[in-house]
Write a structure and sequence with these properties.
This protein is mainly alpha-helical and about 120 residues long. It has a domain of about 80 residues. It is about 55% helix and about 0% strand. The chain contains four helices and no strands. The longest helix is centred in the last third of the chain and has 19 residues. The relative contact order is 0.17.
């Protein structure tokens, strides 16, 4: 909800960056994979898991998506993460969730966090 001053008020849970107004773009920076600062990624992965559970009736390969999320989580928190493997896993998840918009948005949030972590190094 916004007011006349374009302030943003969020109730409940909000994961990731938020933006308000025409042309606004929210960007999250400074995510480090494999260290304590990786909490935004952990939260995004947890949210993705919840959404896959909620929409599993619309995702034919929901069980495989859950395995991919676990694999993504493990690889992202490895001491020497394989960026190509992370990207391949994200792409596989995107293909498997199909056009379930809410889940696809959560996958894209995870993708952005991972990309930000590896392009900043």
């Amino acid at each position: 909800m916004t007011n006349d001053h374009n302030d943003l008020y969020i109730g409940g849970d909000s994961y990731g960056p938020n933006a308000v107004g025409r042309g606004a773009r929210a960007v999250q920076r400074g995510v480090s994979i494999g260290r304590a600062e990786a909490e935004p990624l952990a939260a995004a992965l947890d949210r993705l898991r919840e959404l896959v559970d909620q929409h599993s009736d619309r995702i034919p390969e929901a069980a495989r998506v859950k395995k991919d999320i676990d694999s993504l989580d493990n690889e992202a928190h490895d001491a020497d993460p394989d960026t190509e493997r992370l990207r391949d896993t994200i792409n596989r998840i995107v293909a498997r969730v199909g056009m379930v918009g809410t889940v696809l948005a959560a996958v894209n949030e995870v993708r952005e966090l991972i990309e930000a972590a590896f392009t900043s190094h």
